Amino acid sequence: MREAELRGDGLRLRPPRPEDAGPVLAACTDPDTQRWTRVPVPYSEADAVAFVTRFGPDQWATGAGAPFAVLDDGTGVLLGSMGLNVIVWADRRAEVGYWVAPGARRRGVATGALGLMAGWALGELGLERLELYAEADNAASRRVAERGGFTLEGVLRGRDLHRGERRDMVAYGLLATDPRPSGSPAERW
Ligand SMILES: CC(C)(COP(=O)(O)OP(=O)(O)OC[C@H]1O[C@@H](n2cnc3c(N)ncnc32)[C@H](O)[C@@H]1OP(=O)(O)O)[C@@H](O)C(=O)NCCC(=O)NCCS
User: What is the DSSP letter of 134?
Assistant: First the structure.
């Protein structure tokens, strides 16, 4: 799959690069990132290096997924990660995953990055459905999904086994035919 680069809302999304390993390590050792996402725990420097040098490039090359590093478009500082984690081409659908570095939270980074990626995924990439699973008590992530125009589709009881505990997950979906969230630029999808 051809690598993409997306810009808007003061953000730049591009595939992860080797120089991202340090900031990725810092963000993925944050307790909230470890609590709510499926990053390895404990998270090592080798995990960060593997993500940016092997996993990311492989995902893009095979079309299995589309991970983006989210940067401040002005400073180039890495603010987070936003990606299509699983693309099922036969169904034209993909699953979305994200985290934002602790120091960059609560200023619209996840909402902006999700809007940009969803616009690309449902537009240029040609997907027709995006899925997003969040733990039922992950208020921040649920709000990001809602701000992104996703519809709450149900609660999947005990769906995930995460750090030894079964977790209830809420499922959100966004179809290419759904209306854009209010306030988003027309070009989003
Ligand atoms: C979830 C996460 C990505 C949100 O990123 P963010 O850039 O801070 O989100 P935004 O600034 O775009 O905020 C989006 C909405 O969520 C709300 N929000 C953000 N953090 C919140 C929190 N801790 N509690 C409640 N609401 C929160 C914001 O107020 C905003 O809602 P509003 O527009 O109604 O005010 C970030 O908190 C994070 O990385 N958490 C750990 C990893 C994680 O949970 N990943 C998702 C797994 S499904």
Answer: E
Cut 0.70: pTM above it: yes
Please report the pLDDT score of residue 181 as a whole number. Answer: 83
Distance of CA 21 to the CA centre of its chain: 17
**Is any atom of ligand 1 closer than 6 Å to the C-beta of 147?**
yes
Place of tokens 């420097």: 45
DSSP one-letter code for 119: H
66 C-alpha vs ligand 1 centroid, how far in Å?
A: 21
Tens digit of pLDDT for each residue in 30-56? 999 999 999 999 999 999 999 999 999
28 CA distance to ligand 1 centroid (A)?
A: 16
Task: Give start and end residues of each alpha helix (H) in the chain.
Answer: 21-28, 31-36, 45-50, 56-62, 109-122, 139-147
CA distance 74 to 11: 8
Q: Separation of 62 CA from ligand 1 center, angstroms? A: 30
